[in-house]
Amino acid sequence: MAKNKGRRRYRAVDADDRAWRRARRPQKCKLARNPVLRGYVAARLREDWSPEQIAGALRKRHPAGSRMRVSHETIYKSLFVQSRGVLAKELQKHLRSGRPIRRSVHNNVTGQWRSQIKDAVSIAERPAEADDRAIPGHWEGDLLLGRHWTQIATVVERATRFTVLVQVDGRDMESVTAGLSREMNLLPEQLRRSLTWDRGMELADHKTVTANTGLDVYFADPRSPWQRGTNENTNMSRVK
């Protein structure tokens, strides 16, 4: 109210217009605005902490609303999207995957097989309840490839971090679809709300997974591991 001329001079239309103008101004990310927080995050990354570990430690030490709290998604974005002037690019190598994201203009998925999943629903359409982790039943999954052509799918629940290991006979679409359908149907129906996957073709038959399990399947954006941060960190901790 104070930002919009006070209670007596408040005008809803004018206030809405000013709010839109404020929202459209470029905003620096939280780590760019807070050098103390940025220094803490960078120090922990150098010690090989994961972004989720850092965000969790800050939540325990600082109350809600504190300037010393940051989400793990923001840390990932600061590393991979906003790295200039925020977090040094060399910190990427301290992530448990050990694989920095490539930025070459030749390295994109446009027109490639990984982008040709028919009727894929973007993570942008995933319900808000999945983002705030308040309601269990929203999962993140991925296919891990081992030695000698072995593979296993991991599915992690976002609210509780409960992990389901799915044995699959192969990395092909039919094997992954069958394995997910089998294991996820062992869970109560109320815990089968959504599943977020990367753009791998092993889940191209996502409609069958939905029909078999009731899970609404969403796909993360290309080259955006932070959008599946819960699963990514779980996988790296198991590999490590």
Describe this structure in words.
- The protein has helices at 12-24, 30-33, 35-46, 51-61, 72-80, 128-131, 173-184, 206-213, 229-239, and strands spanning 138-145, 151-157, 163-167, 194-197, 216-219.
- With 240 residues, the protein is of the alpha/beta class.
- It has two domains: 2-94, no CATH class; 113-239, Nucleotidyltransferase, domain 5, CATH 3.30.420.
- Strands 3-2-1-4-5 form a five-stranded mixed sheet, sandwiched between helices.
- Helix 4 packs across helix 5 and helix 7 packs parallel to helix 8.
- The protein starts with 11 loop residues before the first helix and ends with a helix.
- The model is unreliable at 1-10 and 98-115 (pLDDT under 50).
Low-pLDDT parts are 1-10, 98-115
Could you spell the SSE succession in H and E letters?
Answer: HHHHHHEEEHEHEH
pLDDT averaged over residues: 81
According to CATH, what is the topology of the largest domain? Answer: Nucleotidyltransferase, domain 5
Distance between the termini: 51 Å
CATH superfamily of the largest domain: Ribonuclease H-like superfamily/Ribonuclease H
Strand order of the largest sheet: 3-2-1-4-5
CATH class of the largest domain: Alpha Beta
Class of secondary structure makeup: alpha/beta
Strand segment count: 5
Classify the beta-strand content into a percent band: 5-15%
**Number of helical segments?**
9
The proportion of residues forming helix, as a percent range, comes to: 25-40%
